[in-house]
Amino acid sequence: MTGHHDPDWWRGAAIYQIYPRSFADGDGDGVGDLAGVLREIDHLAELGVDALWMSPWYPSPLADGGYDVADYTDIAPVYGDLDLADRLIAAAHERGIRVIIDIVPNHCSSEHVWFREALAAGPGSAERSLFWFRPGRGEDGGLPPNNWRSRFGGPAWSRVTEADGSPGEWYLHLYSAQQPDLNWENPRVREEFDAILRFWFDRGVDGFRVDVADGMVKDPGLPDAPEGDESAFSDRDGVHEVFRRWRRIAESYGPDRVFVGEMWLPDPERFARYLRADELHSAFNFDFLSCPWEPKALRSVIDRTLAAHAPVGAPATWVLSNHDVTRHVTRYGRAGDTGFSFADRRHGEPVDLELGTRRARAAALLAMALPGGVYVYQGEELGLEEVDVPEELIDDPVFVRSGGADRGRDGCRVPLPWSGEGPPFGFGPPGAADPWLPQPAGWAARTAAAQATDPDGMLHLYRRALAVRRAEPALGAPPADGPGMRWLEAPEEVLAFARGDVACVVNLGGDPADLPAHRGVLVAGGPLEGDRLPSDTAVWLRIVREG
User: Fold this and answer.
1) How far is 350 from 280, CA to CA, in rounded Å?
2) E strands, 89-156, where?
3) Rounded distance between C-alpha atoms, residue 298 and residue 289, angstroms
4) Is the peptide bond before 527 cis (omega within 30 degrees of 0)?
5) In what order do the strands lie in the sheet with 502-507?
6) Tally of CB atoms within 10 A around 202
7) What are the pLDDT digits (tens) for 73-82?
8) Is the CB of residue 329 less than 8 Å from the CB of residue 321?
9) What region does 278 belong to: left with phi over 0, alpha with psi -120 to 50, or beta?
């Protein structure tokens, strides 16, 4: 870095998520890679983000988009090698950008050497104790050890064939059969991950995003569970011991190294326990991401979020999209429900992209003005929508597992458009292979190059807002002893709040709305129509006088 080590940088950071396969292709094989990230690193610097988060860059057979890790201390050859990773970390640091990488501790790939050795070693071996191998139930052991269900559908157990060809034990996998769950009751698992954390901290990474942070510890008795009850394998008290151990490792490298948790927990008090001062630093706010574009619902989510974080003094995070969910330009452009649910992605519904884009602009200003950290998923700064990938080209295994009922997540993972008038829009170098997923032909106006000189484009809005956010003392990180915002009186369809002398006003109604009872000078966003704010629009105002 530049020599400045702010231990609290993460409390108000703007963090940019990179899905490596789809960011930029540096070697021309049609797949994004670390060379591509290096090629476009100045895009991130000019955007004004504080950190980048790399989705898994490890070797993987890609049974689940890289979240099936075959080696935690190497780089997938399709992305590059450790030397390229070192160069990327250094290049980011030279530009004042920190680097967070994914860690996937709940499960590994069935191709990982640990699991291959467990299969070869047989029942009762030390190698199998790294996982949850158990004999089956029934006279011939032909039934799974319990009734747990995979989050990807079907039983959470698969049976192996032993070396002699006989039907053998079963192993637990809360996700795909290619993602065996690790047994965190085994001290060796804990020691292995201690070493993995140190490996990457030694290479200069600034933190980890923890996948399935609530799911590592299981009830060792493996009891049957009532339908829909995940308490035997989710949010167990023992997981907090793991994170306290990890926090000590991070702090041994300095006070500015961080952990970000991914937890989908309905209980705000249970959620907040992960953010105590000796555990994780922050966690993703999925309630905000999933919320429909409705004033009452959004205000309720904001209030609940801040209330949940206050008792532990942790900052909230605000997220609109990521690599697993339908892009918010598309969600907000739907006529009906504009929220998000994994249970129904609502593929194929009509979308008004003009409306969705206008709302996405307003949502970006809302998220960036709220107290705490904000995440930007690659391409949202270009206003990209969800892409309807042809069935024959869908890569996401969710499509196959659901029997085609769920088209999966490929629509938000389509490679980014950088320049040019047609596909591949500068994703790779001249003469490169076609991108691994097809881009829409109509993205010419959405490329980074086309928007770079467009003062009215989405890219300019993000650059302007992130610059103002960084420069304004009132924005970004909340104070440690309070919510950092106050609601202003406003019409029912308007969200209006102040942070210091800066107000954020969002009109979610269908008609122009009067601004709250104060005079202000436009800081970002717009446009205004005199003293009125058009529908589905947001502005930041510097308060001159509150009446």
Assistant:
1) 40
2) 98-103, 133-134
3) 10
4) yes
5) 486-487, 494-499, 502-507, 537-546, 518-525
6) 9
7) 999 999 999 9
8) no
9) alpha
How do residues 211-261 score in pLDDT, each as one tens digit? Answer: 999 999 999 999 999 998 999 999 999 999 999 999 999 999 999 999 999
Rounded CA Rg of the chain: 24
CA-based nearest residue to 470, from 11, 6, 30, 12? 12
The pLDDT confidence band at residue 547, using thresholds 50, 70 and 90, is: very low
CA distances from 179 to 77, 127, 158, 190 (A): 20, 16, 11, 18
Please tell me the distance from the alpha carbon of residue 301 to that of residue 298, in angstroms, as a whole number: 5
CA angle 64, 428, 33 (to 5 degrees): 40
pLDDT digits (tens, 9 = 90+) for 25-35: 999 999 999 99
Pick the closest to residue 110 from 162, 169, 64, 164 (CA basis). Answer: 64
b/e sequence 456-475, b meaning 16+ C-beta within 10 Å: ebbbebbbbbbebbeebebb
Token digits of residue 270: 């249970």
Amino acid residing at 317 = T
Q: Give catalytic residue positions.
A: 211, 262
Token digits of residue 409: 């997540």
Please tell me the pTM assigned to this model. Answer: 0.95
Distances (CA, A) of 203 to 70, 90, 426, 427: 20, 10, 31, 28
CA distance linking residue 146 with residue 223, whole number of Å: 7
b/e map of 255-277 (b: 16 or more CB within 10 Å)?
ebbbbbbbbbbeeeeebbbbbbe
- Residue in this structure with the two tokens 């003009």, named with its chain if needed: 354
